[in-house]
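Researcher: Structure for this, please.
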Amino acid sequence: MRKLHLLSIVSLVFLGTQALAQSVDIQKAYTKEIKKLSSEQQIEKAFRTIEELEEQSMSDLIMLTEIEAPPFKETKRAEKFKEMLTEAGADRVWIDAEGNVLALRRGTKGERTIALDAHLDTVFPEGTDVKVKFKGDTLYAPGIGDDTRGLIVVLTTLRAIEAAEIETEADLLFVGTVGEEGLGDLRGVRHIFEAGEVKIDSWIGIDGGAIGRVNNKGLGSKRYKAIFKGPGGHSWGAFGLANPHHAIGKAISYFTEEATEFTSSGARTSFNVGRMGGGTSVNSIPFESWMEVDMRSVSPERLDEIDKIFKSTMNRALEDYNKGVKKGAPLTLELVPIGFRPSGEIAATEALVQRAMAATEFFDVEPRLTRGSTNSNIPISLGIPAITLGRGGAGGNAHSLDEWWMNVNGAEAIKLTLLITVAEAGLDKSRTIKKR
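Model: Predicted structure, token format:
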């Protein structure tokens, strides 16, 4: 076995992903497997096809980016992606009950199913200007990298497999998921595994970052909307009534004090008050005050602990505030769960992870095992082999209106994706598409 020593600490800033330093063992068997597979004529043809498709891939990237896909409103993009996967040659393409696009390409044995996924949705609300703008070789548009480029990686992988007449032993499932971002709370991938319409044995996600990323660890999170409610009234005439804003300030103080102490040691855990609202005017006592809170941890146990801290401090703040209310009704508190992403980890010795690392090294890039919050969190939490790979190229400013992406060796990420996917599915050299 060879040992690749990563940097003592590697920090990546994309999609909330944290890359943790570690030594990575790549087993010789997988290095040999990837080298042999890459020399197969069909794989070499697929690689050439990816290069030949560069112009079309760029055109498709622009076209898909300019189709809005705001949270919970991904239908138009989903319908277009379904059309594109059908034209690419999948055996069966459909949109499921949650809005995910799925394209099945049957294998010669069909005893397993390998999924290749990117998400359809962006973080941007309806009405956002998504027109792609050019500055030299750089493309600017909201969502162009996260994760529209990922969709192009999935689509082009299918096109290249078809063009090269590659037959895999396992079935391949090409997926465009809804609801990966924000309050979507991974609803698309959750539905796929909960509904069980297709039994998936391995999951490969494409989402953010350059090639080299092999995300095999899910960063868990819990999110709540805390709502303090009261009678409301005029700031002068009703002075003395309970004020939800005053109470929520106390709640934030209690929570941040305890949470700061808790997160100062132990497995990495974080907390954040991300949004707040409520009130009608400067001269009105608000009838409602709300905040949205995000908590994350690499440890499921510590995530549960900070969750308890959050709930207990919210209720303590409510109780302490209400003790001082002398006029009218006391405040009430509602804690509404708005997100939960489970933690988990797929061992570095797992075949899928090994293949991904070996393939990454084959492309002369040092693999780095990372932890992140992506669609892979769901299969990882279920013990199903799953990774998330970078979509390649160069990019930045994800989740902002000036997000950008540039095609710097972008084809290499697609070749890498194809190589890992076919390795995991098993190449059947005795069959071709024509013999189907």
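Researcher: Any notable elements?
Model: The longest helix spans residues 300-323. The radius of gyration is 24 Å.
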